Recover the amino acids of this structure.
């Protein structure tokens, strides 16, 4: 039986589309599964749909600052270890 490793899932949250696309392309080329979100609110929707192993988070989002988003992530048992 062959066991395939699950590729790590990364969520890129950035309001600049070009930055998001570039990071996503680079990460996919390196073998990662990547999802993207243009805002903190959209990021939480993506997290609810598929909890990532890692989040690359823009510190200056228009709707939610990185500090506020990190505080919310630390409150959830499913997101505490991201």
């Amino acid at each position: 039986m062959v066991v395939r490793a699950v590729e790590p899932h990364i969520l890129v949250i950035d309001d600049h589309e070009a930055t998001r696309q570039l990071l996503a392309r680079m990460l996919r080329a390196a073998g990662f599964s990547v999802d993207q979100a243009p805002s903190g609110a959209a990021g939480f929707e993506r997290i609810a749909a598929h909890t990532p192993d890692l989040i690359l988070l823009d510190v200056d989002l228009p709707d939610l600052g990185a500090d506020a988003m990190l505080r919310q992530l630390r409150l959830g048992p499913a997101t505490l270890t991201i």
Remarks:
- Residues 6 and 33 are 9 Å apart (CA to CA).
- The first helix runs from residue 17 to 29.
- The chain has three helices and three strands.
